[in-house]
Amino acid sequence: MKTLLFDHASDGHHTHYDNTVIQGLLDANNALELTFLTCPNHENTTSSYLEHLSITTYIPQRIQQILNYLPTRLKSMLITLYVLVYARAHGFKRIHFLYVDCCVLALYLFFPLTLGLKLSGTLHRFPAQKSKSNMLTKLLKWNILQKLVVHGEYTKNRLVQFRADIANRVESVLLPNLQKTDEISYSTNAHDLEIHTLIAQQLKAYKRPLLLAFGGLRHEKGIDLLLESLANMEQEATLLIAGSESCFNKDDLLQILEQYKIRDKVFLDIRYIPNEQVDFYFNLSDIIVLPYRKSFLGQSGPLTEGVARSKLVVGPNHGEIGFTLQHFGIGLVYESEDVKALAFQIDQAILKLNSPEIRENQTRYHKLVTVNAFKHKYSQIILANTSNSKRNPPRIKNLAHLEVLYYMLYVEAITNLWLFGLL
Question: In the chain, at which end, N or C, are there fewer CB atoms within 10 A of the end residue's CB?
Fold first, then answer.
């Protein structure tokens, strides 16, 4: 069965995630007709693994250029629309949305285009908006989405509580650590090694233990809350912030550091961190801190990467992160957005840095989240998603009609968004 995988991005943490899923599918069925569709990536090249397999294709640049002028929500809708039209034009019978989070509204509004196709998706966080949860569960109930993969029992339970009759369509697959866990950085790039050596030397002047806040500086990641909590700590420590600018930039952070007079307690490495450099930061650190706001309900890559290296993790007590830390006993939790509670738990983490109980729990948890276990279960779910119906989806035979249909539906999308009050 011709299978299309779609991800709206192909950089950062998406790269390893997508590669792992594709490897698992091809290992399970090396005769699988598989195509990976994504948007052009301008930050770095698509992984050598995907290029080697020659299965990667991109949404046309001319369409991307038009979409770049549109609001994010409308852009996501039209990209999803393109995926559905592309699948029909090229005779695909199965589509898996690797990040279905940004496709829910489009699938709901354009469901006639899904008829005859086998659709599945992976949801990375429980929707914060009730309307989105309602649309998602209806897609499952109506069999438009036949299977939904989530990365934890918290998200699965929330969806089932929302609509009990979809329980057999939601599968939980624990998110593995997708980076290597060698004691030294595994990057062989001379420039990377030079940067790592310089950082390690500079950090010798700072006090241990070393706290790590890793990833893009989005608002929901709460880096400003972490800096405020640092001013309320009793224990000595150094915070390493490594990640690219987003809602916060380096000047914003420097201003906050001056405000709380903690400049000597923070080391900034504000830049895009390539995948091959991630290992260095986690091995260098002692404690991983997740200062996420209440709006963040999904699982965390830094959590799994930290646990894989037996690093103590401090995270919020809500969402998938809170459930994971508490249920498996692999870290400490605090009341999200409470900077004093966060400061207290970081102090406790420093005092419990060598806790044998937490280490034992982390060892057991790590056995559950190996890459092989992830690939096996994920591929089983996707490949089992076959249709009992003998009716094939209608195919657009004349590919010249593809863009005409796309732009016709573009107008419909804008109309629907206006009717729903989203424009």
Answer: C
